[in-house]
C-alpha cells in the first residue's frame, strides 16, 4: 500500500526532527528525504504553499548526499530544520 501524502509529510518531518535533535544523520536518510520531496512535489493534493519548503529540503538533502562531513552539514542547518518542520506542520495540521 503506498504512503498517502499525509504519511509522507509525517515521515519527512520525522527525519528532519531527528536531524535537528541528534545533530547527525546518514546519507540514506538524505536520499529518503529526496525521494519524499520528489513524490510530494508532483502530488496535487498538497497545499501548493509548501512547495518552496520542499525545494529547500531538496537542496539540503542534495548537499547532505554529496558532502564530505554530513554531521557538520546537519549542525549548520539547525535553524532551517526547525523552520521547515514548523512550516510543514503549519500546512499539514
TrEMBL record:
Protein name per UniProt: YtzH-like protein
Pfam families: YtzH
Amino acid at each position: 500500500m503506498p504512503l498517502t501524502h499525509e504519511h509522507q509529510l509525517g515521515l519527512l518531518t520525522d527525519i528532519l526532527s531527528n536531524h535537528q535533535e541528534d545533530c547527525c544523520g546518514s546519507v540514506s536518510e538524505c536520499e529518503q528525504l529526496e525521494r519524499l520531496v520528489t513524490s510530494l512535489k508532483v502530488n496535487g493534493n498538497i497545499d501548493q504553499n509548501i512547495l518552496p519548503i520542499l525545494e529547500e529540503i531538496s537542496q539540503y538533502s542534495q548537499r547532505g548526499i554529496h558532502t564530505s562531513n554530513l554531521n557538520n552539514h546537519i549542525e549548520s542547518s539547525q535553524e532551517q530544520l526547525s523552520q521547515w518542520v514548523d512550516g510543514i506542520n503549519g500546512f499539514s495540521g
